[in-house]
Design a protein that fits this description.
Layout: H1 3-11, H2 18-27, H3 35-98, E1 117-123, H4 124-134, E2 138-141, H5 144-147, E3 150-155, H6 161-169, E4 176-179, E5 182-185
Parallel strand pairs: 2-5
Antiparallel strand pairs: 1-3, 4-5
Length: 186
């Protein structure tokens, strides 16, 4: 049988009888591969090739893993440090705001322990009440509006009350006078 006839039979088997198709298949010399043999050949090559690359891939994977873990650990340490410093600064703000509210509070004997207190966008009444409590003075406001003036102010606790009044009087809208233990805000 010719090749063209075999191709026609393969393309249109409905045109031929079963005997003709069987005859064609018998005449064709087709080698059927052994699946087990092919698999062994394939897996043998694969193991030889992967055996050479396997240690290098393991080393590369371990290196990448170590880098990732160290990066994650570094990031965690930085986050913890930033949170701890944030808590410490919040505690400092809270302690500075409540440290001198008691009228019986005395100035510390050692003046080197006193650190400046920073007020950010605080009302004048808040700042002066703490300063007056620290220096055991009373604050009198002649105008209600002057209580609500907002300031950025750094209070050096080592400074005298007269120095602090002088600093406040440098502001345009603030005028403070002292009458013994009274601070009068006009």
């Amino acid at each position: 049988m010719k090749k063209e006839e075999q191709i026609r039979m393969l393309l249109h088997p409905e045109d031929y009888t079963d005997e003709q198709l069987d005859q064609m298949l018998d005449e064709m010399d087709v080698k059927v591969p052994d699946a087990n043999e092919a698999w062994e050949k394939f897996s043998g090559k694969r193991n030889v090739e992967s055996g050479k690359r396997l240690p290098l891939l393991k080393i590369a994977a371990m290196f990448v893993g170590v880098l990732m873990l160290s990066g994650i650990a570094y990031a965690a340490v930085q986050i913890i440090r930033s949170q701890e410093s944030g808590v410490e600064s919040q505690e400092a703000v809270v302690s500075t705001n409540t440290q001198y509210l008691s009228p019986n509070t005395q100035a510390p004997a050692d003046s080197t322990q006193m650190k400046p207190i920073v007020y950010e966008d605080a009302e004048l009444a808040t700042i002066l009440n703490e300063i007056a409590t620290f220096h055991q003075c009373e604050v009198v406001y002649k105008s209600e509006a002057s209580k609500h003036i907002r300031l950025y102010f750094t209070w050096d606790q080592k400074a005298t009350i007269d120095d602090i009044i002088g600093t406040f009087n440098k502001f345009e809208r603030i005028h403070i006078t002292r009458d013994n233990k009274k601070l009068i805000v006009e």
